[in-house]
Amino acid sequence: MRRENYLVARMLHHIRNLSSAEKALFRALKTRSKTPKYGLLYHSTFIGRAGLKNKGRISRYLANKCSIASRIDCFSENQTTIYGEKLRQQVEDRLKFYETGDIPAKNIDVMKQAMEEVALMTQEEPPEETPKKKKKKKKNKQEGEAMEE
Length: 149
Fold this sequence. Notes:
Blueprint: H1 3-10, H2 13-19, H3 22-31, H4 45-49, H5 55-75, H6 82-100, H7 107-124, H8 141-148
Helix pairs in contact: 1-5, 2-5, 5-6, 6-7
GO molecular function, one term: snoRNA binding
Organism: Pararge aegeria aegeria
Pfam family, one: Nop
């Protein structure tokens, strides 16, 4: 596992959102102007589709889901896109909730459903095992001579 991936996976979601605005933060500190309120995630299409009132909420929600996705990607044994698709759908559902008021599914229910799908996928496709070659034991010449005497 690469150290950078591990560090990103361990990062808190709000730090991930602000760390994307690092360049703008130092520029603001240098010029003594206002510090950036949001990071690069603020320019995402998800946040662009949200209303003015909900941009900060969606920005934090998206940072949270990105944090969860990076942890799953870093620490899971099986690489799959199922978790990412489910997390993306949760962000879509949250946007719809802010627009229409439809209550989205809870995170625990969505993650259980994703775990079941991953389990079904791994049962259908067992990993191909390569046959292992038996290693022959090499006798040391000295050991062979000692046994003969």
